[in-house]
Amino acid sequence: MSDTYVTLKIREALKAAQGSRSQAQRVLIAWALDDEQLLRGLCKPFLKAIAGSAVDRVARGGSITTAAPAPGQGVVKSARPSTGPKKLSPQMLDAIISRMGTGGGGAAPDDGHEQADNLKALAAAFTQRKKP
């Protein structure tokens, strides 16, 4: 049984993080920002849950931002005025990643460009927080 590209990158991240799972997650997120194939491979199993959550949120009267925020702006809800960049703590990002896909799996359409952009924006907000 051969390993997929994503599995190989996960193993590489674990090795680079010296076995630390939370650090390996951060490494994968940083790599996924520059590697579309890795981003899609990581996200594809969770697209159904992400889309379901987005539909539920909008159906309840919330809103979803469709465009990726400009660099340095972070992830911002459009319902409230922005007071500056929103930043996620490493614990919050780890909690989000750990809950992804718990709403059920299954196949999702392959046209998840918007979802990929939203996840890139989330990862960008996290990596910008780490820079001095």
Helix amount: 55-70%
Q: What's the end-to-end separation, in Å?
A: 43 Å
Total helical elements: 6
Q: Any idea what the radius of gyration is?
A: 15 Å
Q: Return the string of H and E elements.
A: HHHHHH
Mean pLDDT: 74
Strand content: under 5%
Main β-sheet, in a few words?
Answer: none
| Category from helices, strands and their pairing | mainly alpha
Low-confidence stretches: 72-79, 104-111
Describe the global form.
globular
Strand segment tally = 0
Features:
57% helix, 0% strand, 132 residues
Quick synopsis:
By secondary structure, the protein is mainly alpha-helical. Helices cover 57% and strands 0% of the residues.
Q: What report would you give on this structure?
A:
The chain is mainly α. Helices cover 57% and strands 0% of the residues. It has 6 helices and no strands. The longest helix is centred in the last third of the chain and has 18 residues, at 113-130. The radius of gyration is 15 Å and the shape is globular.
Give the topology, please.
Blueprint: H1 5-16, H2 21-34, H3 36-43, H4 47-59, H5 90-99, H6 113-130
Helix pairs in contact: 1-2, 2-3, 2-6
